[in-house]
Q: What sequence folds into this?
């Protein structure tokens, strides 16, 4: 039998925490619940978790402090912030600490599940792939550090966001890159305007890769994008 995915849920609102635990348990996750940052850190030290869901505003130890303490002892376990705050500075602070995503209350349970699954899928990418900086895409060589896309001695310089987006697509080559994941990792916010901006960048990347007919950068309706190579 496949082991259950283990989630550490750190939420000081007992009612919300109970609802989340029951919902996620029904969805097949194993949940360990804590009601403040100190208790959350103690639980984290006792067990191995696949992902942590951390509220930002908590007594005894806030979510940012808890996340920093977790990162001091564990560089790999992904975490997602749950917060009533919608300020962009708070989101940026969370991503600087190392958050994989950020959900603002109130949120739908289905959205939370989608975001959790996206993080878990990404965390299964081998570490050497995550750290990779050069990719072969059909007849093209993409160098992330130099921000170049080269084919037949023709070099295309990429903007920082084009570079970040193409790298994510390469990490998910022949798999679906979900829109929400790309937006939160690159733009740090999945609002409508950023989504439209990302569509423009996808069109630009598609144009850069069009000389090689074995490459397709396709829209997956309602989900995201897929970089397909033969």
A:
């Amino acid at each position: 039998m496949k082991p259950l995915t283990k989630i550490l849920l750190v939420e000081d609102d007992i009612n919300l925490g109970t609802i989340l635990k029951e919902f996620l348990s029904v969805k097949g996750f194993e949940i360990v619940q804590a009601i403040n940052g100190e208790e959350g850190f103690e639980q984290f030290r006792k067990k191995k978790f696949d992902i942590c869901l951390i509220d930002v505003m908590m007594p005894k130890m806030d979510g940012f402090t808890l996340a920093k303490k977790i990162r001091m002892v564990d560089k790999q376990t992904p975490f997602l912030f749950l917060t009533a705050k919608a300020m962009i500075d708070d989101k940026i602070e969370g991503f600087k600490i190392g958050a994989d995503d950020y959900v603002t209350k109130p949120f739908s349970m289905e959205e939370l599940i989608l975001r959790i699954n996206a993080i878990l899928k990404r965390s299964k990418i081998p570490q050497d792939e995550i750290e990779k900086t050069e990719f072969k895409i059909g007849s093209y060589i993409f160098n992330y550090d130099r921000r170049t896309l080269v084919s037949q001695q023709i070099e295309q310089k990429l903007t920082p966001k084009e570079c970040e987006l193409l790298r994510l697509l390469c990490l998910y080559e022949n798999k679906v890159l979900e829109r929400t994941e790309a937006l939160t990792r690159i733009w740090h916010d999945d609002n409508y305007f950023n989504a439209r901006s990302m569509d423009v960048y996808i069109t630009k990347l598609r144009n850069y890769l069009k000389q090689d007919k074995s490459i397709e950068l396709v829209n997956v309706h309602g989900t995201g994008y897929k970089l397909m190579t033969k």
